[in-house]
Specification:
The protein is an all-alpha fold and 199 residues long. 76% of the residues lie in helices and 0% in strands. The relative contact order is 0.17.
Length: 199
């Protein structure tokens, strides 16, 4: 299993090599759906954002965790959040509420907490019996001592981020799968009791 951030990103690129286009199409679908519902929410019912987008966000974690393990992308997993709707909805809702509440104090505490909760969805996928509180708590435990390492992994995508801006945002269709898959490998490293390190 990969140990440092460079190896984690390299592993993500390997499994994405034959799946880039499908992954980009999946992200396009996600952006269209979330953009559509966000527009609807602004004008009509805010509840649609929570009922539709939060399970879809969970589905992305399912798709890219599976990709990291099986070397293939299963689009059907994108709807996984609706199969276990109550648990997924409550978890995503509470996770976002906690982050927002911490962010009300200061931006930095909100960012720190977001990294504490970063493994929540992966843990839920591997442990179907975990309640939302248990999944969030377990993520906090798993990320003790590793929040900065995951932050540095995300920071290493800054070049990609700038390039995406130059493409008027089109590049994000490829960047997001890269980040999600890298996070999946980061999770696998922690889950296997290995320590991700920073080059």
């Amino acid at each position: 299993m990969q140990h440092n951030n460079s190896e984690i990103k390299a592993a993500a690129r390997v499994v994405l090599e034959n799946n880039w286009m499908t992954a980009a199409l999946l992200m396009l679908m996600y952006f269209i759906l979330t953009g559509t519902f966000s527009y609807t929410i602004e004008d009509y019912w805010g509840v649609l954002l929570l009922l539709i987008i939060l399970p879809l966000q969970y589905g992305l974690y399912s798709v890219f965790l599976y990709l990291s393990r099986e070397d293939k992308l299963d689009m059907g997993l994108f709807l996984d959040g609706f199969k276990d709707f109550k648990r997924v909805f409550l978890t995503e809702l509470m996770k976002n509420i906690y982050i927002c509440l911490w962010s009300l104090l200061l931006i930095v505490p909100g960012i720190i907490k977001s990294y504490s909760y970063a493994m929540t969805e992966f843990l839920m996928l591997d442990n179907p019996n975990l309640s939302y509180d248990e999944a969030i708590t377990e993520s906090m435990r798993m990320m003790q001592g590793y929040k900065m390492k995951l932050f540095m992994l995300d920071l290493s995508f800054i070049g990609w981020f700038l390039l995406c801006l130059l493409t008027l945002g089109i590049g994000f269709l490829w960047l997001h799968p890269y980040v999600y898959t890298s996070h999946a490998y980061f999770y696998e490293t922690l889950k296997n009791g290995q320590e991700p390190t920073m080059p």
